[in-house]
Design goal:
By secondary structure, the chain is mainly beta. The chain contains 6 helices and 20 strands. It folds into 2 domains: about 1-60, no CATH class; about 70-269, Fumarylacetoacetate hydrolase, domain 2 (Alpha-Beta Complex), CATH 3.90.850. Strands 1, 2, 3, 4, 5, 6, 7, 8, 11, 12, 14 and 17 form a 12-stranded mixed sheet that branches. It has a 5-stranded mixed sheet with strand order 9-20-19-15-16, with no helix packed on it. Strands 13-10-18 form a 3-stranded antiparallel sheet. The chain starts with a strand and ends with a strand.
């Protein structure tokens, strides 16, 4: 099930995207979005009689984390190498504020404090219920679904500050979308799902989730051993190699097989 948050010109609403999809998770031109009675994280799946053509609505960030976005650093060996770091012995966690979240088509604002703004295409996991100390073998019980993320990073600030808060925490530094897919099994990502990032149409990242050092169940177990996870919290699972700079006016498209694609342009803040 593809759960989206959208607007047709009125207040934001939730809905289920229906219709055929291609191998990349993109819906066909006849797809519609069927309205839901509210946020399914809290009221469940309650379909309404209202429908909109998907082409006629504006998709928003599919989830607004009530609490936090948890990032995982250097979770792909090749990315760790390109950043000049070793593979961590355990998941390397950092936090992004929920105010960094934006949706498909929203601008990524280039702050004046940086001169080296980078894209990082990532698979994101959305948590479905309050949980703590989740065993890895029970991780699927707390997953609401999956979406696409861009872990935007001011690389020069990251190097200068050492810790990640400022470099990854600006408003607009966590695009999410286009929707949440609830029916995928974490095993699919262990077996390998293709993740690509395109900068102005050129492929700059082309990786597989099979190359993650720590898989999704391990990440959920690790994070939840440290902090309580709440419904709507998001875990970013790391980025493959190929990260690089963006400039004002650039367009970044991140696609993950089965999840669709997330596109944002860079704008001057």
């Amino acid at each position: 099930m593809r759960i989206a948050r959208f607007t047709s010109g009125d207040e934001p609403s939730y809905g289920v995207v229906t219709g055929q999809v291609d191998q990349f998770g993109q819906p066909d031109e006849d797809s519609v979005i069927v309205g839901l009675a509210g946020d399914p994280l809290y009221v469940g799946i309650k379909l309404l009689e209202t429908e909109h053509r998907l082409a006629d609505v504006r998709l928003l960030a599919p989830v607004l984390p009530r609490s936090k976005v948890v990032g995982i650093g250097r979770n792909y060996a090749a990315h760790a190498a390109e950043m000049g770091g070793d593979v961590p012995a355990e998941p390397l966690m950092f936090l992004k504020p929920n105010t960094s979240v934006v949706g498909p088509g929203d601008p990524i604002f280039y702050p004046h404090q940086t001169r080296d703004l980078h894209y990082e295409g990532e698979l994101a996991v959305v948590i479905g219920r309050i949980c703590r100390d989740v065993p890895a073998e029970q991780a699927t019980d707390v997953i609401h679904g999956y979406t696409i993320a861009n872990d935007v990073t001011a690389r020069d600030l990251q190097r200068g500050d050492v810790q990640f808060t400022r470099a990854k925490g600006f408003d607009s530094f966590c695009p999410l979308g286009p929707w949440i897919e609830t029916d995928l099994d974490p095993q699919a990502f262990i077996d390998g799902v293709r993740l690509q990032t395109h900068l102005n149409g050129e492929t700059v990242q082309d990786g597989s989730t099979a190359d993650m050092i720590f898989d999704i169940p391990t990440l959920i177990a690790h994070v939840s051993s440290v902090m309580t996870l709440l419904p709507g919290d998001v875990i970013l699972t790391g980025t493959p190699e190929g990260v690089g700079p963006m400039q004002v006016g650039d367009e970044v498209e991140i696609s993950i097989d089965g999840l669709g694609s997330l596109t944002n342009k860079v704008a001057q803040r």
